[in-house]
Please model this.
Amino acid sequence: MSSWKQAETPEWRTSTKSGGSNCVEVAHLKGRVLVRDSKDRDGTVLTFDLATWNSFLDFVSTHPASVEGTN
Model:
């Protein structure tokens, strides 16, 4: 379960794993996780339910070689 507080407007934060020009920002809003490109803040925002987001986090934490160097 997420420890982020419920918010009425997105409070964006940069991923702690971001570096260089490959940064993303995430926000929690009404039971959803939002993801956007930090270089294009007015661009597309991906929206995930918490179960899907948690599954993604579980996958990348247990399969780091699957996501390294994919930029």
